[in-house]
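Exercise: predict the fold of this chain.
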Amino acid sequence: MGVSNLLPHTKKPVSLFVIITLIISLCMITPCMIAGIYFYATLRNSTFDTIERNIDSSAESSFSSLDSTLLSVKNAYYSIISDPVINPELYNYIFPGNETTFNESVDERLTKMMFYTTIWNENILTSITLTNDFNTYHYIGNPKYGVYPGKEDSSALNMITDNREALSKSLGTERIHTLMHSRDDSGSLFYIRDYYGYPDGAFKGLLSFQLSEESLMSNFTDFDKYTDTLCFAFDESGTVIMSSKEELQGETISALSVQGVSLKHMMEDPDNYLAKTKTLTNYPLTACVLIPLEPIYQELHSQLRGYLVIFICLLLLVIVFALAVSRYVSRYIHLLIKRMTRLSQSDYSQTLPVYGITELDNLSTAFTTMSSQIKRLLNEKYANEVLLKESELKALQAQINPHFLFNTLLSVSWKARANQDMECYEMITALSSLLNANIYTPATKFITLQEELQNVRYYLQIQKVRFGPKLSYDIDVDTKLMDHSILKLCLQPLVENAVVHGLENKVEEGTILITGDIVDEQEMLLQIIDNGIGFHPEEMNRQLNEPDASVLSQSEGKGHHIGLINTHLRLKYTYGEQYGITIASTPGEGTTISVRLPLS
């Protein structure tokens, strides 16, 4: 029957391996999950805040760059109309008829002036056109766009002529200062301003700057990485002047929609769109960057999914670690269960190894001690049962017609006395007394020390008849101990052992000394000392501490010392583990058997 079968089961048991794994996993996964959620939320918010700050910075930079470009155009306008070469030509030129003419000195001066400007060299400014009466033009083109003197860009000239009526209506009512988009597919913007004579303030003509819309919108290239981003600028009327999407140009914001959503609504929906706007200082334009948030969130979540994968991998590592720790810990329990199962199957040789871990080593020591104690107790119990059976058998054998035996011995003793054979008479009388003490009193009866010593004298008298002058004995016991009770037959078997095993094979005279003294006022110490042949006491002491039932079941004989072992066990069972017999012996010198008993 296994150990687990001995325990009552009120519910289905749970494996210790599972419990340890769950505990370790929960203890490690719970803080990891809390930290992961906090990290996810914090990283999401901080990342989005970082993205928004980058967008703010890029928008401000783009708006400033666009404003600076328009400022450069404005400064170019003032430089041209104040130039000492160009200015007289503009104000004093006499126009012939309706023919379009070109003044080469003005064109050359314009070319030289623009050659050193940033907006010209960075391909922002495509061409410059001056007109005095909508018919006569001064024109220069940027060679980087394939425009040279004498090779005019028709879109630049057409822009003024196509808008001649509108521009003419403006004359005299208000100053002309406009930014217009070309009507063809050239992708150009025209910055048009009038100029007036000084000091009368009379209208003298128009100055038109053709600007590359692509170059202007290049200020917003930082936003190309954001999906479906709209970059545009609109004037005070809400008309889109320039845009990253061609279909928005020239339309009003209120009428525009992108993918079915109103542009105006998109600009006013902070939950779904991030809108950055700024009114420029150098021209009445409002620049706007409109970024849908959904693609940003998707990209952000895609990045965070990478962290999520790492987090899941960490959780898996935690679980693997928990399984490893659980297996490491539970293997000791499994080994203990295995050894206990074998112990329950009467295999008392089971021990646990030393692990080098304090708690486990304590468990190993306790188990090993328990196993050895169970083995010892069972051996003692078995030995006690053997002794009891033998005692019962001997008692039964001794009770066979005792009256007949005593009557016979009495008759023999009287006959010996009648024949004046006193030695035989004393021997038979001693034998009768010794048998009477053994047969008519129970084996566990307590008698006084004086009575026990008298039985010892009877035995020694009989042995002295046998050995003659080879045997002598003396009894030297403190008289204060004579009335103390002791277990019957606790000394006679020891004296018998001294005679049989110590003196019987000795050639010279043998002596036995029996002493008794009080020790520590609570115990008595009785000793049987002989000068016999002696022996090595190690094996004898081992048998006293760990009695072997197979030896106890044998008959008394040479080398067995059964009476000695039986007496020791009887004393331990009666008085306790701390009492009993100790042996000191030296081969060729003799043996001392000490008996320690309580006074009470």
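Check your answer against the key: The domain at 82-216 is CATH 3.30.450 (Beta-Lactamase).
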